[in-house]
Structure formats: C-alpha cells, structure tokens
Amino acid sequence: MIKPCWKPLVDGDGSWRGRDARRRWADPNGRVDGLFWYKDLGPHVNGEFSMAVIQANNLLEDQSQLESGSLGSLSSGPYGTFVGVYDGHGGPETSRFVNENLFPMLKKFASEYQEISADVIKKAFLATEEEFLSLVRHQWLDKPQIASVGTCCLVGVICNGLLYIANAGDSRVVLGRVDKTVKGITAIQLSTEHNANLESVRAELQLLHPDDPQIVVLKHEVWRVKGIIQVSRSIGDAYLKKSEFNKEPLLARFRLSEPFHKPILSPEPSIFVHKLNPKDQFLIFASDGLWEHLSNQEAVDIVHSYPRQGIARRLVKAALHVAAKKREMRYSDLKKIDRGVRRHFHDDITVVVVFIDLSSMNRTPSRSSNFSIRARGGVPTSANS
C-alpha cells in the first residue's frame, strides 16, 4: 500500500462557477499516484488552471501554490491570481518556508499600499528573505546546515488585466500566444533566469565583484558561482549572503577560503510587467526540471494541442519520456525507479498551467471566490509514477 506522498492544502470550493463547474473541477485536493501529485483542472478568478508535480529527490525540494481571489488582507481586494513555483536546493526547508510565507507577505504589502505593483512584489520577496535569514540565525548553533539551503522563486500575479512576473533563480514561465500570421501558437518566455551558465549572468556577477577572479568557476563543464552553485539569485543560501554563516560548524564544502564583505547571491527578483491581450491564451510556470527536457515551443505546442483537463500532468509525462530516452530506457522502466535514485535521471518537476479568460477580469469576485491550493511533499513508501 502506498502512503500519500503529498499533503495538499485547499481552501474554497470554486462554488461561484456553479454545479457544472464543480463536476468539471472535481477533486479539490488533487490526487496522488505514487510520486505524482496532480490537480487536473481547477478554477481561478481569471480562468482555469492545471497543476502537477513529480518527485525525484528523496525529500521533495519543489514546492508550489496557486492563490486566487483576494490578494490583500482587506475584503476590498485587490483581486486576482497568484502563482508560485519554488525550486529548492540543498534540502526542502527554504522552499517550504517560502510556500508558507511569501503570499502572506504579498497580501500584507498589497493592503498597505492598496495595490499590486512591481514594488509590492519586490518588497514581499525581500521581506520573506529577511524572515528566513532570521530563522537561520535562530537555528545556526543547533542546525548549521540550514544556512546552505535555498530556493529559486518564480511568481506570477494576474491583477486588473496586468501580468506581473517576478523571478529569482532558473525556473521559467512561458506564454502561449495565438497569432494569425503564424500557424499554431507562439512561445514567448517572460521570465529572466539567473544561472551562471548564461553569459549575461556571469558578466553581471563579474561587474558586481570586480576584485574576485573566482566569482564564477567552470567545473566539469558547468559554470558555478564560487564553484559551488549555479544560480546567482535565490531566497536562502545564507552561507553566500552573510559571512557570519560561512564558517564552522558549516560543512567544509560550503565554506569559502576567503571572507566576503558583501552578499555573493541576491534575493532580488527580476520583474516583468505585461498587459494581457486577447491573443494571450495560457501561461506555463515550471521549475527547471521541465525545461531540461522540453523546449519552450514544445511545451506550448502540447498545451495548445490537447484538452485542458490534465494538461500539466501531460507536460510532466512528456518530459519524463524524454528523460528516459536520453538514458536509452523505456518510460515504463523509469516509472519503477524510486525517489532518491530517481534524481540521477531527472529532477523534481513542477508545472502549473494557467489559462487566461480576459472576460472574467471585468467581474468583481466575491469573498466566496477565494481558492487556495499548495502541493507539499511527504514521504512515500514506494514509487509508481
């Protein structure tokens, strides 16, 4: 018997859409199938969404959430949809922390400033970072390795016809847009990535740290910041933010030989604001585990070619088929590999597909419209996904 490897949190039933919608959006908690968790279709105030996660690590390091309805602490709004994908590294602690704390921070600042804006989202990122660093400081003596745990952080907010994308790390969001001049659908990447394998990121790091010839190091054909980590922006990773956490009792492999006087990694997100238009059909938010195996265009083609129901799960399975083929094995054999060992074949993969209904943005949702779902990992006893 397989114990559930997920503990989804759901609030709200989407009842503002009626009985037919409730049948269409069955299973408000999502479903579990071995190392898979998925919510095949659900409502948000600006349309519908599909969500899926596959675990590869021994402890799931990806976390994700969708919050729809009020984006502030007050009943007056603002209203919209919030999507978060948090790809942890070094452990699950930071991604879990962000999954619990980033959206409440956003609501706090949105209420304080009475709006959603790029500045409000940035403040939410930085406040969440400070809260986590305070936690690291509190646990430092008893649990020093928490200083080496971090997460990429990709957020999308739809509010008042605008789409805000904020990213720190190398997760990605891609827009699917129809264009009569082009057959099919066009993929448009909206997020800026912060991975040292990108020449622009290495140039940025070298500009910020001109006196450090080892700020980026090529190791085993992979560029890494200080020879340790690929991403240049994240939440957490306190050992590369504050020198007080880069010493014993931290493990030697994380300690730098020379002290540093300013943060090496940054928690500040790159933010992009886009006015949605009728050509914008859907958004694919995903951790880099998906993009390692599917191109932007391949992903949007899949979403455009199949029904909405279960489309996020279909994307994950498409990536797994590619991962299996790369290792010259069958997908059916990959499915038999348990968590932990599975990480040698692919990463944790999180996908949230958000379909956009511009007509719904002219309606003011009621408080009963609030919908919340978070996929959080547990420990399964065996694999079958």
UniProtKB/TrEMBL annotation:
The keyword Endoplasmic reticulum does not apply. It comes from the Eukaryota. GO terms for molecular function: metal ion binding; protein serine/threonine phosphatase activity. Pfam families: PP2C. Its cofactor is Mn(2+); Mg(2+). It catalyses: O-phospho-L-seryl-[protein] + H2O = L-seryl-[protein] + phosphate; O-phospho-L-threonyl-[protein] + H2O = L-threonyl-[protein] + phosphate. Residues 48-356 form the PPM-type phosphatase domain. This is protein-serine/threonine phosphatase.
